[in-house]
Amino acid sequence: MVTMASQSPAPVRRIAVLTSGGDAQGMNAAVRAVVRASIRFGAEVFGIHNGYQGAVDGGDQIRQLHWNDVSGIQHRGGTVIGTARCAAFRERDGRRVAARNLASRGIDRLVVIGGDGSLSGADQLSREWPELLAELVASQEISPETATAHPRLQIAGLVGSIDNDMVGTDMTIGADSALHRIVEAIDAISSTAASHQRTFVIEVMGRRCGYLALAAAIAGGCDFALIPEAPPGDGWQDEMCDSLRRARSLGRRDSIVLVAEGARDASGTPITADQVRAELEARLGEQARVTILGHVQRGGTPSAFDRSMATMMGYDAASALLSARPEDGAQLIGVHRNRVRRTPLMRSVSDNRAIAAHLDAGDSAQALKGRGESYAQLFALLRRLSHPRPTTDAVRRRIAIVHDGGLAPGMNAAVRAAVRLGRDRGHDMLGIEGGFAGLYAGRVRDLSLADVDGWTSLGGAELGTRRNRIDEDQMYAVARAIEDHHIDGLILVGGIAGYQTIHRLAAERTRFPSLAIPIVCVPATIDNNLPGTELSIGSDTALNTIVESIDRIKQSAMAANRCFVIETMGRHCGYLALMSAMSTGAEQVYFPEEGITLTQLATDVERMRARFTTGRSLFLVVRAEGADEYYTTDAISRVFEAEGGPLFDVREVVLGHVQQGGNPSPFDRVLATRLAAGAVDILSSALSDGGSDAVMIGLERGALTTHPISDLPALIDPATHRPRDQWWVGLTSVARDLAEPPTATTGSTQIS
Fold first, then answer.
1. Yes or no: is domain 2-172+302-336 CATH 3.40.50.450?
2. Mutual orientation of helices 598-613 and 633-644 as an angle, nearest 10°?
3. What Å distances lie between residue 399 and 78, 390, 464, 493, 712, CA to CA?
4. pLDDT tens-digit map of 589-619
5. For residue 190, what pLDDT is reported?
6. pLDDT beyond 80 at 220
7. Sorting pLDDT into bands at 50, 70 and 90, what band is 3?
8. Which residues fall within 8 angstroms of residue 172, CB to CB, at 6 or more apart?
9. Residues with Cβ within 8 Å of residue 587, at least 6 apart in sequence
10. Residue 498 has pLDDT above 70, yes or no
C-alpha cells in the first residue's frame, strides 16, 4: 500500500538502476520511472552507466540521479545511461569488484533492465552478495559496519528485449516499438510488391522467439510466416507455395513471407531468407526479393505502449525494492493481462531456458506451450488467415457486417479478418455500406476475399460508418431489410451508439421476429469507453497519434517559456488523456472521471510559477475534451495566461479529428483480428445450434470474453455512457507521482 507520510523521515535508502544487453525502445521511460518513483518514496537513486561494466569500473560510472536528470527522455530510443557487454562481470572477481563499488556507496537495491543473461547475472550477484562482502571485509576493502548495514542485495528485473522472449511478462520493453518498425516496412514493401506482382521475403529478429514474425504477419496481412516455435515438417516449401498460389488465384498481386531469424525446420536445420527466396523463385516462376530489417527494428522513438508499460513497471520496481522484506528473493516486474505482476526472477529465467531446451531438442509442441496460451492462439489464428479453405460440408449461412459510430483505425482489419474467417467457415459474407441507414436503403453487397485484400493496413472504414438513432419507422425498415437480404447473423463493428442500437434491436424481437438472429458487437472506438472490454479497436492508434503530436509540441516549446494546454478526444472518458500524459511526462492531466476545480487550477498556477522561476521552459497540461463543462480548454488557457504574467505564455492545442486518422497501429490490427475471429466463431456456433443471442465481445484480462447485450444498461453510467468499471483509472497515482517532485509541503510517499 502506498501512503503519504508526514512523520520523521526513515533512514535514507539507496537504489541503483542499470541497463544491460541489447538496447530496446522504452528503456528510458523505465529509467525515468525508477528514478522519480525512488525519489518520491524518499530514497536516493544512482544510475550505473554502461551496464555491468559501469558497476565493475565504479568511479563516475555510478552517479546519483536527481529528478531533473531524467526529464525529457521518454521519447528517446536506446538508453541514456548506456549499455555494454561486460566479460569481467561473468567472473566472480568481477562481481566482487562490483559488490565493493555498490556497497561502499550504500547501495543495496538494484533495478536491472535487460534480457535473460542480464537478469541472471543480477540474481547471481544477489546470491553471492553476503560472501562477497565478507571477503571485502577480510581484505579491508570495506568496513565491517558497511557490511552489517547492507547484508543483502535486493533485485528487481525488467525485461528489455525487442524479441518479447521472456516468460513472466506478456510483453517486454521494446517489442511493441519494434513491431511498429516492422509493420511500417511491410506496409511500404506491400505497395511496391503489388506494383510489380512480386514476392518479398522479410527477415525479422527473433532468435529464440517468433513473436515479432507472428504478430507482424497478422498485422501486415502477410501470406506465410516461419517461426522457431513451430518448425515446419517435410514439404513445407509446397505448403508455402500453395498458400501463395491461392492468394494469386483470388486476384492478389503481391505476396509477403516473414522469416524469424531463428527459424528452423523439423530436423533443426536453419531456414534462411535466401533459402525461402530461392524456393519461391524455383517453384512459382516469379521474382522474389529479400529484405533483412536488421537493427532498424531496435531504432526509433518508442511507441506509446512501450512508454506507458515501461513507466508502470519502473514505478512498481522501485516500490517493490523499497518495500522488500529480507526473505524476498529477486523479482521480475512484468505485465500480465494488462496488469503489473511480480514473479520470482529465477523461476521466469528457468522457464525461459526450458523453452530454449525444447527448441534445441526439437520438441516444438512444448516450446509453443511454454510461450503461453495467447501465443498459441495467435499462431493458430495466423494459420487460419494464411490458409483459408472454405468448408464445404457446413450449413451455408449469410453473415452481414455493419459499422456504427465514429471512425476507429482498425475497423477495416476487423472486416477483412471476419470475411476471410467467415468464408473459411463456409458462410457468405455481406458488407453493409453506410451503417444501418445503408441496410434499410439496400446498400448490401457480397464481400469476397479479393474485395477485402489489403484492408488490414487501411485507416478509415471502407464500408463507411455513421451514427444512427433508429426511430419506429426505421426499426421496421431494418427488420424488413434483414428479412429481404436473408441475413442470418450480424457483426457490428462500432462504438457506444452501435451498442445501443443493437440493444434496442434485441429488445424488439417479439414485435419483429426477423431480428431474432445471433449478433456480436465488436468494440471499435478511439475513446476506449465501451463495456465488456478493457481495450477497443482504434484506441492504441489514437494514443500513438496523440503522443507523437505532443512530442512535436514539446520540441517547439523549448525555445520559450511556455505552457501548452492540449485537448484530446474521449467524450466522457479520460483514457486517452491520462495514458498520453503518462507517456509524455505531462505535468498535469484533467479528465472527466476526476473533474476540474478552481482550487486545482490555482494550485497548478503556483506550480507553473515555481517551475518557470527555477529556469524550466515548459509546462505541459493534457485535458480530455469532456473533463468539465465550464473549465474548457480555452477557459483554462485564459486563466493560466492571465496569471502567468511575464514568466510564461500559454498556447492551447486542440488535436481534433487527427486522432481518428492514420493507418492502424500493429496492436489495433492484431486486436481487430482477434476480436473478429472470436465474433465469427461465436456466430458460427450459434448458427449451427440455432442460437440467437446478441452479445458484446471484448478483451478482459488478456482473454476474449462475452457479455449479453441485455447487460448494457447495468455496465454503463447512464449520464456519461462510459463503463462503470475502468481499469486504467488506477494508474492516475503513477502519472501524478512522476510528474512533479515532492516538496516540503507534499512530503515523500512512503511504502508500507
1. yes
2. 50
3. 47, 15, 18, 13, 23
4. 999 999 999 999 999 999 999 989 988 889 9
5. 87
6. yes
7. very low
8. 24, 159, 160, 161, 162, 163, 164, 165, 166
9. 607, 611, 619, 620, 621, 739, 740
10. yes
159 band by pLDDT with thresholds 50, 70 and 90: very high
Residues pairing with 435 in the sheet: none
What superfamily would CATH give domain 175-298? Phosphofructokinase domain (3.40.50.460)
Q: Residue 590: helix, strand or coil by DSSP?
A: strand
DSSP result, 721-733:
-SBS--GGGGGHH
Cα-Cα-Cα-Cα dihedral of 297, 303, 307, 309, to 10°?
Answer: -90
C-alpha distances (whole Å) from 465 to each of 179, 435, 530 are 29, 5, 17
Q: In what order do the strands lie in the sheet with 255-260?
A: 224-226, 255-260, 199-204, 288-292
d(CA 711, CA 637): 41
pLDDT for res 746: 56
* % the chain with pLDDT above 70: 95
Q: Which residues pair with 708 in a beta bridge?
A: 695
Per domain, the residue ranges of the chain are: 2-172+302-336, 175-298, 389-537+665-718, 544-662
DSSP assignments along 629-640, one per residue? SSS-HHHHHHHH
Q: What is the CATH number of domain 389-537+665-718?
A: 3.40.50.450
| 85-141 per-position pLDDT tens digit | 899 999 999 999 999 999 999 999 999 999 999 999 999 999 999 999 999 999 999
Query: Which member of 163, 424, 540, 668 is catalytic?
Result: 163
Whether 163 sits among the annotated catalytic residues: the reply is yes
Least confident stretch, 34-43, 514-523, 548-557, 563-572: 548-557
Cβ atoms of residues 402 and 439 within 8 Å: yes
At residue 2, the pLDDT reads 40
Q: Residue 701's CB: how many other CB atoms inside 10 A?
A: 11
Residue 463 has pLDDT above 70, yes or no: yes
CATH of 544-662, one of 2.60.40.1120, 3.50.50.60, 3.40.50.460, 2.40.50.100: 3.40.50.460
The two domains 389-537+665-718 and 544-662 share their CATH topology (first three levels equal): yes
**Cα 138 to the chain's mean position, in Å?**
50
Q: What is the pLDDT of residue 709?
A: 97
Torsion 482-483-484-486 (CA) sign:
positive
| Grid cell listed for 411 | 475497423
What is the 8-class DSSP label of residue 585?
Answer: T
